[in-house]
Please model this.
Amino acid sequence: MIEEKLVEIAKEVSGNVSRTRKSFILKVNPEKVSDACQKVAGLNDFYHLSTITGVDIGEHITVMYHFWKGRDFITVSTDVPKSNPHLPSISSSLPSSLLYEAEVKDLLGVIFDGNPLMGTRLILPDIYPEDAPPPLTKEADSEKIRKMMELE
Model:
């Protein structure tokens, strides 16, 4: 039942649905991620956004929005290029995303346009160098960053 609804959403946002055990993944282009998240959040009147995660794949960052309800898990996934790491914020429609987006910005450098916390740091220390790569990117060298922070 939920799979059929996700296939409908995928058609509306030009995405693809896949399944891994108990979880569904809805893969969409970056410009469709906000629409996809709003549609998933509206499924069966309530789907909870539990977190937003990301991973550095090399040329791009994969950002994943994790939703759940009962025993159903849905991940909306998109790839954003490192050369232009911008995504639309979903915080105006899903306020619970505000801090998750700020965390992904701190750790992976993805800018969520429209999120009021993009000009501040959420979890990085004040002494983290402005010119250092985000700590969870492949370009980050922890030893070099520690020296830049004068911790060694």
